[in-house]
């Protein structure tokens, strides 16, 4: 009989922390522990939220009679440390400090994941790991180059869900992820469209930097001339907000609530229909560009993310891209499962956790 391993997964979001407890592959519970946004606003930085969030999490554990004594693994969502190759990493002091300092340039609530794991690890023990943080960098060299000397493209995407979905799809084909070429798309509040070649994510839009299709909250790619003209008299705060919070659907409708906007589409609202379909149209264009990166050798187009709950998203992508490769949809996301199953592979000795190198996986061309 297989040994039973207990694994706690911690995934901080902007106003909540998603907690999951697994026994081997079985999820015992998943809960979004909400944090009062009016309280969060009082903290100058995301790092300053740590103690408050832990108080709320501790109360949740106590109220639910959840005893973490003897837990085998604690997995913290990775944040903005220096860029790394994909995989599972031990959480150590250097990783924690670099994440707190946002060394990878990503300032996001996910940076609290390894910190919260560390707090609980000191109390309950177990191994402590992170897996496929948003700054996974496996770009091919040509994907890094821009038209300005010294400015290079970054890799910031929904790596955790993208790689887990790709791994699952490969298994469904009776293959290994490392033997396949996929175009994998995370389509939700943020949109990542990535080319996976033999287990490496060699290209994709910089979703964290606002590149790619516009989304429910992000303005997406625009011509530089349009950007300079529009932002000429805007503050830096306004620019950042349009890139990550108030752009995209939010800019058109004053809300990023996709259900609210899609209801307008269902009711025949012409503006809502036009903008909604334009968002899908831009996703389709980026999928096409990733097919050329893979030279047309694509084993599958794999879709994941929350917006797939609207059937026409998959339908329109299938209509336009089905000639490239078979289109398969995995609605929702697998972040909690990805982290838990990664920890399980380490506990079972099937995979070894890497040591965080403390420097970017790529830091410029040498010639």
UniProtKB/TrEMBL annotation:
* Alphabetical list of InterPro entries matching this protein: Aliphatic_acid_kin_short-chain (IPR000890), Aliphatic_acid_kinase_CS (IPR023865), ATPase_NBD (IPR043129), Butyrate_kin (IPR011245)
Instruction: Could you list this entry's UniProt keywords, alphabetically sorted.
Output: ATP-binding, Cytoplasm, Kinase, Nucleotide-binding, Transferase
GO BP, one annotated term:
acetate metabolic process
**What reaction does this catalyse?**
butanoate + ATP = butanoyl phosphate + ADP
User: What would you give as a GO molecular function for this chain, any one?
Assistant: butyrate kinase activity
Q: Give a yes or no for keyword ATP-binding in this entry.
A: yes
Q: Which Pfam families has this protein been placed in? A: Acetate_kinase (PF00871)
The EC class name is transferase
Q: What is its EC number?
A: 2.7.2.7
Q: Where in the cell is it found?
A: Cytoplasm
Concerning Gene3D superfamilies, the annotation shows: 3.30.420.40
Main localization, broad class: cytoplasm
The yes or no answer to whether the keyword Cytoplasm is present is yes
| A GO CC annotation given for this chain | cytoplasm
Q: SUPFAM superfamilies of this UniProt entry?
A: Actin-like ATPase domain
Family from the record: Belongs to the acetokinase family.
The name this protein carries in UniProt is: Probable butyrate kinase
Which gene carries the instructions for this protein? buk
